[in-house]
Amino acid sequence: MTDPRQVVRSALVYTICLPLAAVLGYYLADPMDFTSFLVLGTVFLILLIPILLNWHQPLLILSWHTLAVVPFLPGRPPMRLALTCVSIIIILLVYALDRRQKPILVPSVTWALVYLSAVIVVTYVLTGGAGFGFIGSEVGGGSRYVALAGAILGFFALSAKPIPPEKALLYTGYFFLGGLTLALSSAVALVPDWLRWVYYIFPVERSTLFAPSPTGLQVGRMYGVATASLCGLCYMTARYGLRGIFDIRRPWRLVIALTLTVGVAFGGYRSFVLLAALILAIQFYLEGFLKWRYLPLWITIAGLFISLLPISHKLPYQVQRSLAWIPWLGLEQVREDARLSTQWRLELWQRVLVDVPRYFWLGKGYAINVRDLEFAQFRRFDPVRGQGELTPGELAELAGDYHNGPLSVIVPLGVWGAIGVLWFWYASWRILLRNYRYGPPELRTLNTFLLALFCARVIHFMVVFGAFYAEFYYFTGLVAFSIAVNRGLAVAQEAPRAQTAIPAEPAAALSPAPVRPVPVRM
Length: 522
What we know:
Layout: H1 4-28, H2 34-47, H3 49-63, H4 79-97, H5 107-126, E1 139-140, H6 142-159, H7 168-177, E2 211-212, E3 218-219, H8 223-245, H9 251-265, H10 270-286, H11 295-308, H12 317-322, H13 332-353, E4 368-369, H14 370-377, H15 392-399, H16 405-438, H17 444-464, H18 468-485, H19 507-510
Antiparallel strand pairs: 1-4, 2-3
Helix pairs in contact: 3-4, 3-7, 4-6, 5-6, 5-16, 6-18, 7-8, 8-9, 8-10, 8-17, 10-17, 13-15, 16-17, 16-18, 17-18
């Protein structure tokens, strides 16, 4: 007698599995073809559906600061962007099937992002749009609009589902430690050939291994090491706080934190060191260390920095480059290199400031001419026309990278974009402040650090360095994670009202009334 289950299994094998295996085998014959990548990626995504349905939020949190990209899609978009689209689709489907699964929405931030999205769309339309250079178009800049859309949609995807309280610290590790993959971009020279395939997923384009300095030196600056160390330092502070890091009963925490701090300095970027210093300074303030009783601690830290001055010229070049903003520290050549780097940025800002009134009401947009940019990068001195090579500042201006936060907002998006960013920052700051004040006691350390990190990033963006289209996802992800881990917006708990004591009645009033005998009739 034939088993019906066996018949169904055989039918599935012959009607689905065997034809699918034949099709996949055909495309695997030429795996580097774009169509093969697309078909294999689609099949792989279908097989991942059960995993994505259950784990799309932790996977999105893990990918938020990671370096991973989707290699088989055009332009190799970040893994964060692909998982954002998947999470949005799953959230909408779940809500359509079960209205009780309503996403978390905080109106103050939601309306700010809706307004900012409208400004971006209107600017895109009125400035003629933008293209994608990787598909043959001579007009680029479309990827910057996609990055901004991904940052905004990522906020709603990451904050839609509350994080269980017992998994808050685990998800904190996902959120920050995913950035450790950035160190792979700086380790490309150490990876053996048989392992180089990993760079299809973790590219090295963001790693400035040997960046020519204004003085002509070949500086070994390691972007990946600096950013990975900064992410690790953020996790240590979010997990333990400064009080936990300086706990003498657990000295390994301080050793790890100091090692990560040195890693930030080894990157060779002054902006990363300043950002780390801002985070720790605000964290010191929020944890209550700026008091007279902690004066010996501050004197000790200041003494350590002063002790570096006599031996600063012996430090590695990257460390001297990172600390070049401190007077009298390091070699004169290093300080001159840093001074020239600052000078071309100041000259760039002066040239761009002239265009601010022109793009005040309607921004310039993000469209760039890819061919002109490629020609400018390879241009050499022409004695006939009197044209020379473009300076780093001129190349950055042509590419729309102004190395300045306020200019990266108001020039492409105009004053309306600046209003939207300020609105979003103010609403986000209020959320983080309320979660810091009224959040659950077990999340006090985490909420303190999230507020410190947000304030430090805003100051860093406004004063030190900023690129709006590339860094906006830092802000949206930070606020969304705070909303998810606090299960929305924390509300102040009212103190229980003291019950009014009822005055005791006199004993006479409490004594029972005398019972009179009832006469019985015979």
